[in-house]
Inverse folding.
């Protein structure tokens, strides 16, 4: 594969709005995806993530706003003049053409000399490790092989940007893990700006440099996976990225100490200053410690007492549900062989680390 | 355990054997007989190919062979010219006339081509309305109906919907992502159409075209009514009816007809094989549609209305003929009257009652057979069960003329007890012929219905104590009722205008059905009016039948459909 051209291939989206008839599918989307970045669009189905990806490729209803690749606005170009490579969820391999013909298609459309086409097709098939299947028809390939050919067909034309629309959703669980590693490796090798649509947070977490979480056509938050998990901007992001304890109440500052008062009167000290008034706090189950009622310790941590109301064994952790009056908090306690568990209805103390508490907009 | 299965399957096995026997008796043996006689020396009874040599030595037969081939091929060409733009409009554009085009796809099929043939002569013939107008205003005429042209014209107007329906379905089944991925890789416009869209839709087109070819190749009524006798099917009919059932030429022609039918079926299967192009997945089917510009819309409407007028012309002509008094050397009939309808109803109502009886019985047998075959094929593990399906479907490859000749030859010496008459001239044989000929249609409807019923529903009934028989009766048949009804109506409607087999099997006027009556009337100039009136009645039969089956199918489909899941990213 020749080197990518030096020109920047970052993707910039400015004030993008899109509707199907009267339904607004995307609202005020602004994004700045860096050159060579592996970027994920994450969201539940119907959030508009696929629509956004298709809009970048030029499919679907025409949006308003600007879509720039490098410094070129491509929003007015037809799909075939955009130079963004897209891998379709269904792979969309043409059943009447052999693997080689499929992969050669884009190069033929670019009217390259036959010799160069053959060379590049061979190189790319080599890259995805399927050169030996070149003369097969797509229907004779397994799901994973089809996926690789679809990828090969797209990267062989050296697009400026690679778009992947739920590329792993048609594979079984094991293959999915393997393919996502392969895709990531390939992306690193080619230094290709890549946008990856998925509804699976694990997929996004493991592959993406940064990601955008979408809901109802609006970008909720953009950032590195770990940052979004630890510091969600809003309740949607907190809930969508893993399990979260969410409490509603009042934020108050007394004698220079900011704390959070729940509806049942429990008060939790917060780490830093926050605006007073109604608000919500979020903390993850693994950031809460659990000890027996009479146990001391946990200095500087918030202590909340409650009663164990349910327990789930998840393997590496035990998830307790603890009733603190009005609310049930979830606590993940690491499971060690031989360690006793807390019995149902036994009284426990919860240690909530103030570092782990995130205040979000109500 | 093994023993149990055997006991459970004893009933279906008996039913399967009975059906196999029926198919053997009324499809296998007659066709085998025809082929056998074709290869038999008429004098010595030895196996020989002398009959085929004789056939090709005869210049009339050679001419008939070439003509049949030419007419079929040209009909495919003309039908394609009519169908391709219509299929393209509906699948590519947001075109308001799409509903119009869909109706266009059905209207011709509700009238058998031979019914409209005479009316077409009056509209498009040398002295027909169109040529009179052309001559008067522009000073030239077009030989639409001259000899073979007439057959080509009538047949292609009648059969083009086969191409339209198959091609549109194929285009609609192309996964949109197929087109989008090509665009994404830099392809567009005509190149995209040529390299991706057309190859993907090709199997649908070939299937439709093969069907048109074979229907035209086998058609007997149209050339007979247009008085074009130098084609294969009319020659077979004329040899058998004028020289007798011992003349080998009718059998030779039959073998050629069957061979071509098989060839056409094989071609269409070949084009479909290994090409499961109905790959609709997420993005939904069909090509990307775009809105039309004003002048484009005008153009589309012009084309559609022109074709609509052409397609409706046999119907218009038939109506005019049935209500007209004298229509000769004139653009329109001289005056209008209801007399022809009185004539038909007062003197020839037996045609109608016979048709109701024959087609009704045939359709009833068809759905019973089809349901039983469907059950044996899809719900049992009997060895060779697939062959019941293949056997029944094989009737598609047997032209009506061939079946008629086969029945005459096989059953003329079989006496029916009590009424003491050969089976070949008993009216029941007409019903049997209709049953065999329409079984493939009923079978497809019933098999589609049975495949939609989850086996678990039946297992639940058995688990609660219902026997196999009770389960079929109380669970399976009620759930299949939509498909069974649709199959009944389709069989009834198409059987009621069946001509090519019945024309050979009608022993006396009082036993004759509608189609035969129309044919008889149309033979004489004075009979054209009543013939047309009878034709209008036949069209009503088929039209209402088609509409009813359409309604039934739609209703079942709607009641079974799961709630639509809005697929993400693509507008519904």
């Amino acid at each position: 594969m020749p080197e990518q051209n030096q020109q920047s291939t970052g993707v910039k989206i400015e004030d993008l709005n899109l509707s199907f008839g009267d339904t607004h599918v995307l609202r005020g989307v602004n994004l700045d995806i860096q050159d060579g970045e592996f970027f994920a669009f994450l969201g539940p189905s119907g959030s508009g993530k696929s629509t956004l990806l298709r809009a970048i490729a030029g499919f679907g209803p025409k949006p308003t706003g600007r879509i720039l690749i490098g410094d070129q606005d491509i929003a007015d170009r037809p799909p075939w003049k955009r130079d963004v490579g897209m891998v379709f969820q269904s792979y969309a391999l043409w059943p009447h053409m052999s693997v080689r013909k499929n992969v050669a298609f884009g190069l033929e459309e670019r009217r390259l000399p036959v010799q160069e086409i053959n060379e590049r097709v061979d190189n790319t098939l080599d890259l995805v490790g399927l050169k030996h299947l070149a003369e097969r028809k797509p229907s004779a390939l397994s799901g994973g092989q089809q996926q690789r050919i679809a990828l090969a067909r797209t990267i062989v034309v050296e697009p400026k940007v690679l778009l992947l629309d739920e590329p792993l959703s048609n594979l079984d669980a094991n293959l999915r893990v393997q393919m996502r590693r392969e895709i990531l490796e390939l992306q690193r090798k080619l230094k290709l700006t890549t946008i990856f649509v998925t509804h699976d947070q694990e997929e996004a977490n493991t592959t993406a440099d940064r990601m955008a979480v979408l809901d109802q056509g609006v970008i909720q938050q953009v950032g590195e996976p770990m940052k979004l998990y630890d510091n969600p901007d809003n309740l949607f992001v907190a809930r969508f990225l893993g399990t979260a304890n969410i409490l509603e109440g009042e934020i108050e500052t007394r004698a220079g100490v900011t704390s959070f008062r729940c509806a049942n009167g429990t008060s939790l000290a917060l780490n830093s200053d926050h605006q007073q008034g109604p608000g919500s706090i979020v903390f993850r189950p693994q950031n809460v410690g659990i000890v027996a009622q009479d146990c001391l310790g946990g200095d500087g941590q918030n202590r909340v007492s409650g009663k164990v109301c349910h327990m789930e064994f998840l393997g590496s952790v035990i998830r307790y549900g603890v009733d603190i009056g009005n609310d049930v908090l979830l606590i993940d306690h690491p499971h060690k062989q031989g360690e006793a568990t807390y019995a149902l209805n036994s009284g426990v103390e919860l240690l909530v680390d103030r570092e782990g508490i995130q205040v979000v907009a109500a | 355990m093994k023993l149990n299965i055997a006991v459970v399957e004893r009933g279906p096995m008996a039913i399967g054997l009975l059906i196999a026997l029926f198919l053997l008796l009324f499809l296998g043996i007659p066709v085998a007989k025809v082929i056998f006689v074709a290869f038999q020396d008429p004098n010595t009874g030895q196996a020989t190919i002398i009959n085929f040599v004789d056939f090709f030595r005869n210049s009339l037969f050679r001419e008939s062979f070439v003509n049949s081939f030419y007419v079929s091929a040209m009909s495919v060409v003309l039908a394609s010219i009519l169908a391709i733009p219509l299929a393209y409009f509906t699948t590519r554009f947001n075109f308001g006339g799409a509903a119009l085009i869909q109706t266009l796809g059905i209207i011709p099929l509700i009238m058998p081509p031979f019914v409209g043939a005479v009316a077409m002569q009056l509209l498009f013939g040398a002295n027909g309305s169109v040529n009179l107008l052309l001559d008067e205003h522009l000073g030239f005429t077009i030989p639409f109906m001259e000899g073979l042209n007439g057959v080509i014209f009538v047949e292609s107007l009648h059969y083009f919907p086969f191409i339209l329906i198959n091609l549109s379905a194929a285009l609609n089944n192309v996964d949109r992502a197929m087109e989008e991925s090509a665009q994404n890789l830099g392809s567009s416009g005509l190149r995209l159409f040529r390299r991706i869209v057309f190859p993907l839709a090709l199997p649908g087109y070939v299937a439709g075209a093969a069907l048109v070819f074979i229907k035209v190749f086998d058609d007997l009524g149209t050339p007979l009514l247009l008085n074009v006798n130098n084609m294969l099917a009319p020659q077979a009919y004329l040899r058998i009816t004028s020289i007798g059932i011992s003349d080998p030429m009718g059998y030779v022609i039959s073998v050629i007809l069957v061979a071509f039918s098989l060839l056409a079926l094989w071609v269409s299967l070949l084009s479909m094989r290994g090409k499961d192009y109905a790959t609709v997945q997420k993005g939904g089917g069909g090509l990307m549609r775009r809105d039309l510009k004003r002048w484009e819309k005008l153009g589309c409407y012009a084309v559609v209305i022109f074709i609509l007028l052409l397609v409706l012309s046999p119907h218009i002509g038939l109506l005019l003929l049935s209500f007209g008094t004298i229509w000769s050397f004139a653009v329109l009939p001289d005056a209008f009257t209801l007399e022809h309808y009185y004539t038909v109803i007062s003197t020839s109502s037996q045609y109608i009652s016979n048709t109701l009886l024959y087609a009704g019985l045939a359709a009833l047998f068809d759905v019973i057979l089809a349901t039983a075959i469907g059950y044996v094929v899809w719900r049992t593990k009997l060895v060779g069960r697939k062959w019941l399906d293949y056997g029944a479907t094989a009737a598609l490859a047997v032209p009506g003329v061939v079946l008629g000749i086969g029945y005459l030859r096989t059953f003329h010496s079989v006496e029916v007890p009590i009424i003491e008459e050969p089976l070949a001239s008993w009216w029941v044989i007409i019903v049997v012929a209709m049953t065999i000929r329409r079984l493939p249609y009923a079978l497809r409807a019933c098999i589609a219905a049975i495949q939609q019923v989850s086996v678990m529903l039946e297992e639940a009934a058995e688990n609660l104590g219902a026997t196999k028989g009770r389960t079929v009766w109380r669970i399976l048949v009620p759930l299949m009722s939509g498909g069974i009804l649709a199959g009944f109506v389709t069989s009834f409607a198409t059987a009621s205008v069946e001509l090519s087999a019945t024309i050979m099997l009608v022993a006396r006027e009082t036993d004759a059905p509608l189609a035969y009556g129309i044919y008889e009337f149309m033979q004489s100039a004075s009979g054209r009016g009543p013939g047309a009136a009878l034709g209008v009645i036949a069209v009503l039969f088929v039209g209402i039948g088609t509409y009813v089956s359409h309604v039934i199918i739609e209703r079942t489909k709607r009641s079974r459909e799961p709630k639509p899941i809005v697929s993400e990213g693509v507008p519904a």
